[in-house]
Write a structure and sequence with these properties.
With 335 residues, the protein is α+β, with helices and mostly antiparallel strands. 30% of the residues lie in helices and 29% in strands. The chain has three domains: 24-98 and 321-333, Alpha-Beta Plaits (2-Layer Sandwich); 106-219, no CATH class; 225-317, Gyrase A, domain 2 (2-Layer Sandwich), CATH 3.30.1360. The strands form three sheets. Strands 4, 5, 6, 7, 8, 9, 12 and 13 form an eight-stranded antiparallel beta sheet that branches. The chain has a four-stranded antiparallel beta sheet with strand order 2-3-1-15, with helices on one face. The chain has a three-stranded antiparallel beta sheet with strand order 10-11-14.
Amino acid sequence: MKTYFLIVVIISLAFSFGGCSMKDNFEYKAIIVPESKNSVTLNDMNSAAEIISKRLKNSPGIQNEDMKLDVTENQISLTLSKTDTSKILSVKKIITGYARLEFWETYENSEITGYLTKANNLLREMKVVPEVKDSGIQDLSASQNPLFGVLRPMVTEKGDPLPSCLIGLASETDTAKVDRYLQIPQVKDLFPRDIKFLWSHNPYKYGPAQGLYELHAIKVTSKDGKAPLDGSVISSARAVTGKSSSDIKIDLTMTAEGSIKWARITRENIKRCIAVVLNGYVRSYPRVQAEITGRNTEITGNFTKEEANDLVNIFKSGELPFELKIEKEQIIKSQ
């Protein structure tokens, strides 16, 4: 009986110690390559590797001496020793996380509603008839209103435009159709040349209809077509909680150069909306009440706590110069 008890104790201790070391006794290897290999140079790959290194260093539980990066013109080889296997999914998100943050000037809905009506009329003359299926758009004849059959204009019951850069709502299944209509050359020519349309990341949360996405009117003010302000001016970031635990925001601190640009943009757009765009989707569109001269600003967008923390790491470490993917990976038991 004593011998049996001793064996059980030894086995229990073995599993106990094995469990303690399990997390730190693996090596994670990954081959990281550009999502698109067009015009990627060794300098580009070195820049991407530097940002990955910063992101991993900012992540809890990863030591500098446990990380090795080898860079070639075609790939980045990452080796993480003493890996906590429960964090590998997080590591993969850190490596490939691509957060393109942009601040855009916008058109007011009242400035665009007339163009939408002209576009709807032109599509009717062109005999474009959409198939309306579960779009959430009601009381509109598809044959008479090809565009408004899939895009609900943001107007009051009297037809007056609602103040915002939000110009319409469409179901997720109809967003591609709206995009196609607005890209028809004859329709596109009706609108100002400096306009572009972006959809919201999240469904519209007001009103009775559910699952409708917002279409926003963005004003392109630069010659190169880029946003006047982007994530390159962010020097630090942190996730903050608002009045409720689900109200997660990201507090950003800009560089001196960024704060000067931000002051100019807000000064020139008082009483107008600025669209905060992340990876091509509108996350929020606050209306500017006064010039903002400080280096701090805050972005909202129905972030989860995990998403906010991932974005904070990305903003603090810098944006990747291009999108990356993991081509190969393996987890090796350390000897």
